[in-house]
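Thread: Newbie trying to understand structure tokens

Hi all, I'm a second-year student working on a class project, and my supervisor (Dr. K.) asked me to get a predicted structure for one chain before our next meeting. I've only ever worked with sequences, so writing a 3D structure as a token string is new to me. If someone could post the tokens and maybe explain what I'm looking at, I'd be very grateful. Here's the chain:
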Amino acid sequence: MKRGLVGLLLAATVLVPRDAAAQLGVDVGVKAPDAALETLDGRPVTLAETIKGKVAVLEFWATWCSVCKELEPRMEAAQKKHAKDVVFVGVAVSANQSVERVRRYTAQHLGGFVHLYDRKGDAVGEYDVPATSYVVVVNKAGTVVYAGVGGTQDIEAAIQKALK
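---
Reply by user tm_fold:
Sure, no problem. This is what the structure looks like when written as tokens:
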């Protein structure tokens, strides 16, 4: 099992202190890793092709994640505000949820997002995801400018870093 997936599963069952979570995950300043994912209808896609040349907000989330639900209004507001300039990608983790469950949830939530499913945990591993509600912001050059976890992240400030 990849290190990131282990961290995700542990974080799903215990509360991770903010300082500990900040030490996990992809480093700010690095090129955004690529990963093999799939669309919600099962087509293979890479994360790199989805975000290439765009400012991107990636959220690693799950339908069962209460912290993700806390973050959802901030994410939806940011997506509406920046729809023309930023691609929002919801990376649904496969832990304890099926692609069908994700499809049902996204039919009513997170409109305007590109929804992808991480069936094999490739993206979770490449990004060393510490917990669901993990957000990564990437600038047009493909560099990670922000990474954070939790329901009260300042998504707007992170997007502004990427738009500079």
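A couple of things are worth pointing out once you decode it. Residues 3-163 form a domain with the Glutaredoxin fold (CATH 3.40.30.10). The first strand starts at residue 36 and ends at 39. Feel free to ask follow-ups in this thread.
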